[in-house]
């Protein structure tokens, strides 16, 4: 997990530092921002601490209706919960007492022109993604028609070459060789690059390619949700390769199960085409459609007709 500080917020978003420029090293411990509610009224031990606090128009307008002493008391209550920073949205003027108490407690105060809704959504998304548990694995990550696919297999099996063919067919590279996987939720796994390999694809006998320079911006995507794990393996003569529909197998990363498919390689096989078919079939399955079920229904219908004729 990456450690985030208030300085990261300052670098990432359009904010100005009103108070606490020397304390931007404070660490963010929680992934969700909060808007003060009960914190305005009194101190409650059960209220979660350590959240970034956002003061929007509703909060600022409420504070302006209070007397000077009452306003300072409410601000003091927020500071009591030790937020890593406080953000004022919509370029509003800071309420009375905020600068004083935050200076005393070394809490940075930031101000942004963004609305409360905009800032909350963007900051939540950024923090959740940045603080997500992550691992790096050997493989290739591509986005095939909007579906994230993780390609794995032994070194030299043809993962990068397959990705290159997919790019030529209009799909997108996310990462080659090293894929960073981030767990955003118990069901969501995000695949991305490690910055060093961004936009690069390594092909044996050719060398390193920058896919954006060669094929344009549409050839690359920063990240994708992983929907399929496809392993490229050597062809096995005695294995069963004509199943009507294989029971779904899963590969688990960071406790997130991902549907797993094994594609055996053989000269002349259109591996990129099989990956496209697998991705499109996965999409249809998410819509509730199964080609195997439809086929079996047709067979049952034909059997029923034959029995009626007899």
Protein described:
It is a single chain. This protein is of the alpha/beta class. It folds into two domains: 6-130, 3-Layer(aba) Sandwich (Udp-n-acetylmuramoylalanyl-d-glutamate--2,6- Diaminopimelate Ligase, Chain: A, domain 1), CATH 3.40.1390; 134-293, P-loop containing nucleotide triphosphate hydrolases (Rossmann fold), CATH 3.40.50. It has nine helices and 13 strands. α3 (68-80) packs parallel to α4 (98-105) and α6 (159-168) packs across α8 (271-286). The longest helix is centred in the last third of the chain and has 19 residues, at 291-309.
Tell me the layout of helices and strands:
Blueprint: H1 6-12, E1 16-19, E2 53-55, H2 57-64, H3 68-80, E3 86-88, H4 98-105, E4 109-111, H5 116-130, E5 134-144, E6 147-153, H6 159-168, E7 172-185, E8 188-192, E9 200-203, E10 207-210, H7 211-215, E11 223-234, E12 249-253, E13 256-265, H8 271-286, H9 291-309
Parallel strand pairs: 2-3, 3-4, 6-11, 11-13
Antiparallel strand pairs: 1-4, 5-6, 5-7, 7-8, 8-11, 9-10, 12-13
